[in-house]
Amino acid sequence: MLKYVLLGTLNYSSMTGYELKSFMDSSTTYFWHARLSQIYTTLKNLERDGLLKSSIEPQEERPDRRVYEITQAGRDALNSWLMEPLTSIEPRKETLLVKLFFAGKLDKDVLLAQLHLQRQLYLKELRSLREQAKASIQQALHRSPALEYDAQMWEATRRCGELYAEMMITWLEEIIAMIEARNPDDAPAKRGAR
Amino acid sequence: MLKYVLLGTLNYSSMTGYELKSFMDSSTTYFWHARLSQIYTTLKNLERDGLLKSSIEPQEERPDRRVYEITQAGRDALNSWLMEPLTSIEPRKETLLVKLFFAGKLDKDVLLAQLHLQRQLYLKELRSLREQAKASIQQALHRSPALEYDAQMWEATRRCGELYAEMMITWLEEIIAMIEARNPDDAPAKRGAR
DNA sequence: ATTATCATGTAAAAGGTTACATGATTTG
DNA sequence: CAAATCATGTAACCTTTTACATGATAAT
User: Fold this and answer.
1) Can you give the pLDDT at residue B192?
2) Residue ranges of E strands in chain B
């Protein structure tokens, strides 16, 4: 999958591994991320398979830049992947839900603290999606007005991230309320009265 | 992470690898899944590390059952993991969004077909979460009424899956409408008039 | 002074998938 | 008669993470 993120990005313009990393960090990070080390090894494999080619731009005082460019074979591989439908939904992997599922015996306050923290983190993510992410799409479209439909797709993925964060916040508030409603008789203990 | 799903499940009752797989398929599958082969190797590693122990129940006509049981060390590892907070949000990995992000130049009808298919799949998942998943939690609680808080947590994870599926359906309908609204002048081409 | 940015990679380990190997019994 | 269920595992492979290795320049 990282393979197609790299092909798709290099289909817009040639870049180094380092630039691909920062591009991903500012755009795909809400639905796909990768470490630099993985990007470098995947680029090497894609070049070996003929989907990319690279050239060296010498530099002084810092490592030479290796700029990757997509080949025709790369464009073909990308397009045929984009055309084939996904016939199942992506299985989720949510560590938070694993914890929660087994947290029936966990201390109420320990659990609530964890849920409040997650809520804070999703609020922060939501702000970032509504501000930075939105602005950077507008900026990119402004630079290349021909990419109108592309920008529409970027906005759609941003919007999915936004709805997701909103959903998680709603859900967290729902279960925080549910857990707070447990054992109303125990509440005075919080005041240190016993 | 699979490690903690196995410890958490075996903390309810001892089971074989095969039974753990079917338990996961009927309960954690909306937020964590694994193949049998991975379950078997992970169980072996957990036993090597002293968090589980196994015993053989001989059977005729089919392979002996290897039943795993959690140890005190296993319970301790589970509890200390449950207590420690998650300090960041889970990075998502959504193949569908990767496709969409790079689909700006993709044929409108090819794209719409893919989005309609995904919508169908999420509708099916939503039905399953509202029917099977809900019923199986009620059933488990009925068998062991002492697990009231546990059942509350199971319901919370089910509910998250439900909200997620609803959100994805909303989002898919939103972008389907957006793409259908593209280029209204091209619509007559569909009738084969040109 | 420390941190961020630019810039490259390799190696080992962990996590996860796919394929292989076996085989009786039950259900549709 | 085919598929699902029960029941175990191993081996090869792919993906991803973590750690190692280097080092100048610019910003805070």
Assistant:
1) 47
2) 15-16, 52-57, 65-70
